[in-house]
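In this section we walk through a basic example: taking a raw amino acid sequence and producing a predicted 3D structure, encoded as discrete structure tokens. The instruction is simple. Fold the sequence below.
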Amino acid sequence: MTTGTRQDQGPATGPQRFVISFAGFNRPWAVWIAHRLEEHGHRVSLQRWDPQNSTGLDQALDDLARSGSRVLLVLSERYFSAGTHTDEEWNTALRAVTDDHPDRFAAVCLTDAPLPSAVAVLEKTDLWGLDAYEAEYRVLRRLELPTDRIGTETGRRGPRFPNDPPEIWGRVPRRNPRFTGRNDVIGTLREALAEAPPGASTVTLLGLSGVGKTQVATEYAYRFASEYDVVWWVPAEDRPTLRERLADLAPALGLPRGAGSYGEQIRAVLEALRRGSPYSRWLMVFDGCDNPDDLIDLLPSGAGDVIITSRNREWATRHTSLVEVPLYARPESVTFIRRRARRLTTDEADQLAEALEDYPLALDQTAGWLADSPLTVGDYLALLQRRLDSREAVTVSDDYPLPFPTALAILLNNVREDFPDALALLRLFVFFAPGPVPLRLLREFPADDVPEQLAGLINDQIRWNAALNKLVQFSVVRLEYSDLSVDEGGGGLETVQLHRMVHGIVRENLSEEEAEPLSRAVRQVLAAADPGRPADSRLWPRYAELIPHLGPSGVVTSTNPRIQTFLLHCLRYLILAGEYRTCLRLSEETDLVWRTMLGEDHPKVRELSYHYGGALRNLGLFRRAEILTRARSVELTEERGDRDLETLRASSSYGGVLLCIAKFEPAREIFEHCLNTYRELLGEDDSTTLAAQNNLAATYRLLGRYQDSYDLDLDTLRRRERVLKAHHISTLSSGIACAMGLRLMGRYREAQTRQEQGLKVNTQVLGLDHPQTLRAEHNLGMCLRRSGDIAGAGQRLRIVWERATRVFGVDYPWTLMVASDYATYLREYGDVGEARRISEDVVRGYQSQLGLAHPYSIGTVGNLGLILRAQGERREALSLAEQALVGMRGALGDRHPWTLGCALNATGHRNITGHREDALSLGRETLRGAEEVLGPDHPMTLSAQIALAADLRSVREDEEAGKHEDAGIKALTRTLGAQHVHTISAKQRVRPYWDFEPQP
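The resulting token sequence is shown next.
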């Protein structure tokens, strides 16, 4: 059976179902079209187009098509600018969805502006500039519906035709063509008006100055204008203007103005609105009424709607519903900025939004300035910081002619004049960081540290609450309540949210004499809140709450020893919590101040150097870390000798850096001396002794002494479980080290079992993104791979690699380690092309960070050689393999496991490139070395034996080859199992290779 084309078919006669997709800006058209189609007997549903809340254009359009109804798109520039998609993305999506769902989509167009070229496939019909009859005719024709009943009414009153204005349209501000987002706010406003009891449809839009309350009310008036007969706008900043503007409505309603007083005219207007005569569908907007007493007796009642915009939360007690107008959501900010300044990229728009904390007025005025300037966003923000009160640094509009700092300053001046307690409290808040200020800390203000000018306020709960309520009432701050339990620091206790712009303006207007006692008080508050145990992970949320406030309160420059100790505790927390970049920034700032203030040899400066060096080491800044820690170690050794506890601590810090730069033997000497001395001075179970033992175990592991390392790690774990308890961060670290040791010794199943349990506990105690949790998950992925769970290993390694990249960055040392292991996995079991890309990035990263001669640089070059071999580039692969072997011999000697691994790989590369005798000679040497260093049953030893059998076969030494092969397979079966991937590969005569694995 065949069907005709659309042109061959006549108009459909039965009821049909339609979905109308529209941008919120064009809602009047969508509502009118829906009403007209319903008058013709069809069923219609409205779907506001919002691609920001979908997974992508293709998916959003496909979802429309899958509704089962025909889809009518109401097109305009706003439809295509609702997100940040390019014309090309639109073209691709439209072509795809119309190919997949032919004849499902139709379109009407409300503009003559250029649209994406693929709109042509929708065969749109134009509605702009038409009257109601012609517009309805074109809609029906485009949808192939009968046109013989145009204008038919069933008696149900519908919306006005969008091109026909309301009967009365009074001084509504012009519509903002760049109005962005706010669909949730407008939806909430509409719902609140619709659900209000009869005669009480009054809603107050509440928010900070410049947040967009007037813009939302204006957009609502335009968007829903077709549903009202009267739309009247009343400026309501003061009562005289309000009364005058309300009285002006009288003649518009046809009421006699005569010689009556304003009062008589206003009473007549309010009565007409109440009765709904001559118009029952009306909208009154009272804009900017911050004093409810000015308006409350003038609010109309009746069948219409009232919108008030205000900064004053007191409207909640005046029989109105409140709708908060928040700051922009970030996608709204980015979309708005790019409409205002088209030259900015998405990332640049995000940078601007981040700096201004999504404050709409500031975004409008700054993006407007940037639209006409070649300045980068970063340079502009620096300029804005220096000239915050200058009109020259922003572009103002007729709609809001005041620069945003001035607008906020006016609000704050009102607070200063009328509510001095509120101003005093606000001034205290600005010595915390912008954003959340935990009120719990201020309520626990040390009595002896209260500044004189705040004593009465802080010690009087009634005055305190009154002052705070005034700040909230005028939207200067807002309160947020915690969902945490009391034990977790919550229990309903609120924080004050203070916007960065308000914070900056208040702080800028304080003199040094006014600021000093306030900042000193906040420092004392923070120090009093110090939990005192930065190593206790249960207390980390409390430290995290304090860290943002260190800078604004001047903690770094404080001369108070108590404050300095608090700062050192914070730095210790940052290191343990994995917040290395924050720790480094704070350490650098503190080091500059303290060396001048306290002197190079002060105990607190020495303590600072340990945290400073730890941050440098963990971020891969090894040269700086080496200089810093070596200087401190040498200085203390010369001053106090090598058995002093402070010297031992400095030496341990230096030894940790030596491990990172592959000076393993000097590090071993340091750690063996430290461990022996700590055992004599402090005893075997002291936590400091156990830390030294942990360091020595890590050194043995890097030296390839896997059994010695494991024995030390296991002893450390058992002692830490007894001394520090099972959930201490150091105990959990020892658990990971033991699992790693088992894996490196070839005891894969034991390693996997231990690590699976360890990962659960690390996640529970430290969180999913903590470096130690990631280390545990990475080690589990490696255990799974070595145990033969290939799919599970690949999933784990990719997840950890992606998370490490997101949390720490691509060049972070730990990220490079994970990336290297994931690349070796992909070479064997995934996409070898992706493996090569990742491996090349790893090699570049290590060579840049560590230099060409570091074992990690050398080993990852060898891994890259294996990838080239897999891609058929045998000569290039051989060159890299030989380079890795020579380099590793030079770095670590002939008997290190990493050198033996490089040799094992080189035998394979030599063999497949025809250098069989050279391969055989190296293979015999490698097997002997592996048996001596690792033992006869270690997986690497058995791999060397299987590889030697292959080399022997290649030179016709079949008998000897068979002996080695049989012995190797039997040992693999005994140690790993008959079904292990290594055993099966050996039976299939797949030549083994060795993967270099950087270690944490």
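Looking at the output, two observations stand out. Residues 177 and 539 are 50 Å apart (CA to CA). The mean pLDDT is 88. In the next section we compare this with other chains.
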